[in-house]
Amino acid sequence: MGSLFPSDLYETARAMLAAYEKRGLRIVTAESCTGGLIAGLLTEVPGSSAAVERGYVTYSNVAKSDVLGVPEEMLERVGAVSEEVARAMAEGALNHSRAHVAVSVTGIAGPDGGSADKPVGLVYFGLAVRDQPTRTRECRFGNPGRQEVRIASVRTAVELLNSALQD
């Protein structure tokens, strides 16, 4: 079977989803710069509905606020590409779903839009697990191209979702 995604990434997602299903856990995604690619990868796996509860694509700041409850004040103060917003997105996705684990991503995929403080390739992730402290991760992928930054972000999100199984 062919996949839209690299075969190793697809296989990692397939195995991870089987582990989530076996444990009766469900996933929700909250995506900005990946535009739904994380949910796209997960739902490419047949039977993924046993582990994928829902996904949010909140590309604009208004969507982050309206759909996930990210405070407008936070978005104005630190900007959408920040650890705080990644945390709030993951927590908001978890609170607005019936899932057990939420992963969020917000960043600058390029090729434009970066600055000295927030360069292209800067991506923040959040991982919220019910009844546990939310974790975040910062990655600096550089500027290898928009597609590469987005796929690297999907890989990192899958790694984070896998790490939730270790807890």
Record keyword descriptors for this entry.
167 residues; alpha/beta; five-stranded mixed sheet; CinA_C; CinA-like_C
Can you give a write-up of this model?
The protein is of the alpha/beta class. The chain contains 6 helices and 5 strands. It has helices at 7-23, 37-44, 61-68, 72-78, 83-95, 146-164, and strands spanning 27-31, 52-57, 101-107, 122-129, 135-140. InterPro entries: CinA-like_C, CinA_C.
**Percentage of residues in strands:** 15-25%
Question: Total number of β-strand segments?
Answer: 5
The main sheet orders its strands as 2-1-3-4-5
Q: Any guess at the CATH architecture?
A: Alpha-Beta Complex
State the CATH class. Alpha Beta
Q: Supply the number of structural domains.
A: 1
Helix content: 40-55%
Instruction: Classify the secondary structure makeup into a structural class.
Output: alpha/beta
Name the CATH superfamily classification: CinA-like
Overall outline = globular
By DSSP (H or I, 4+ residues per run), the number of helices equals 6
Rounded mean pLDDT is 97
End-to-end CA span: 32 Å
CATH topology: Maf protein
Rounded to the nearest angstrom, the radius of gyration is: 15 Å
The largest sheet is: 5 strands, mixed
What ranges have pLDDT less than 50 throughout 5 or more consecutive residues? none
Order of helices and strands: HEHEHHHEEEH
